[in-house]
């Protein structure tokens, strides 16, 4: 049986504390937000689309890295 590709992709930030948060968009507030809950993650339909958005985020003292992860089907 072959490996199937994930149907959704998300973006994670790793903070200086070691905590990881998932990128999401709140339905009633403008702007980017981050949640500790995977089920709130904004779902991208392709890894490339998620990576393109991920590449727009800048690291800093608190946000050490951003990366794309496969998400389980909801």
Q: Helicity range of the residues? A: 10-25%
Name the overall outline. globular
Mean of pLDDT:
90
The percent range for strand residues is 25-35%
Strand order of the largest sheet: 3-2-1-4
Radius of gyration: 13 Å
The unreliable regions are none
DSSP strand tally: 4
Largest sheet: 4 strands, antiparallel
What is the structural class? mainly beta
Total count of helical runs of at least 4 residues: 1
Provide the number of structural domains: 1
Helix and strand pattern? EEEHE
Fold blueprint:
Elements: E1 8-15, E2 20-24, E3 33-35, H1 47-54, E4 63-71
Antiparallel strand pairs: 1-2, 1-4, 2-3
Report on this structure:
This protein has 74 residues and is mostly beta strands. The protein has one domain (8-62). The protein has one helix and four strands; from the N terminus they run E-E-E-H-E. It has one helix at residues 47-54, and strands spanning 8-15, 20-24, 33-35, 63-71. The longest helix has 8 residues, at 47-54. It is globular and about 35 Å long. The chain starts with 7 loop residues before the first strand and ends with a strand. 15% of the residues are buried. The mean pLDDT is 90.
